[in-house]
Sequence to fold (416 residues):
Amino acid sequence: MNTLNELPSADGLWVGLRLAPGAAPGLSLPEGAQAAIAVEQGVIRWIGDAQAVPAGLSEGPRRDGGGALVTPGLIDCHTHLVYGGQRANEFAMRLAGASYEEVAKAGGGIVSSVRATREADEDTLFAQAAPRLEQLLADGVCAIEIKSGYGLSLEHERKQLRVARRLGQAYGVTVRTTFLGAHALPPEYAGRSVDYIELVCREMMPALAAEGLIDAVDVFCERIAFSLEETERVFQAARALGLPVKLHAEQLSDMGGAALAARYGALSCDHVEHLSPEGIAAMRAAGTVAVLLPGAYYALRDTHLPPIEALRAAGVPMAVSTDHNPGTSPALSLLLMMSMACTLFRLTVPETLAGVTVHAARALGLSDTHGVIAAGRPANFVLWNLRDAAELAYWFGQRPLRTVVRQGRIAGEGAR
Ligand code: DI6
Ligand code: FE
Fold:
């Protein structure tokens, strides 16, 4: 796949487009009408009826979409994309019946990825993450969140976050970095979680924030990770630095994390299989997005569904993401996650499409620039070789992408 410098400009008038429902809120076209999008200097200048393009916008290259379905650029709002090694050996152990604990005792689990991440230098981490990013981009992803959390020391967390930034620059994709220093207790702090959390709050977070490496702060709040009190300590440190927070909340048990996160105005609470009615009410009041991660649910053979009906009834926005990570969700297709969100979680197709566009943008604090197609925004949209938007979630294992316009460039073309 080409990197940023080699990509052609998407400037010009795009015609022959069929807008997916919800792609351009506020725009209503006559039944069956095709849309046009004018791109100038990488920014959407105008979108509307292809039969009514204002004079002056028809200059420049004309780009025929051939009647393709068009959506906003997809957004993968929860990933742990940068890490060393992989854990297929653990997968085999688990298939043979080993429990998560037994795997951890044999040197596996998050700590084994920490070891491999610490051993790798920046260029090695970049080289390992780049092909994974390319897979996600081939599904029309135009913005992605990348968390740290496999370094667990200032030096190694910095390395992960720097690689995340470099990936964004190299591929011309919007990357939001999330500092997840409180992901697991590093081996050298065994039995001293209070001390480790202080290191996260007093040294790592301020230093990395000063280097411009942190867009948001996350914590793995769980019995096997960090407590509610430790989570709040991290949130206080984030607030003092003016950084937004999000949370791995109620994945395996109800810790009350979502309500705490909502009190801190969290952008999102993620996983939420065990989310309580109180958590839902707090998220609703705070405008916090629920990020659903069907890949982890599937890979862990979870059976405890997130409370979709209650979230829907409360009007809590629901996003959908890969949670790409080497342990519980080695997923490299956001379209597959859409399918799983529908099939496993019973989201509707419009819900799952909103979940990888407008609501995913909100989960990253990108509502003003990403998630919908509208004038004044950077040009991020995808043309699909599909008739019906439902096909985005219906097929799985297909790559129906026709053309992706990412950050104002023609960033990929599939089969016609
Ligand atoms: N929740 C998870 O399920 C993953 N991280 C997290 O915060 C697990 C990550 C791993 O096993 O490497
Ligand atoms: Fe995660």
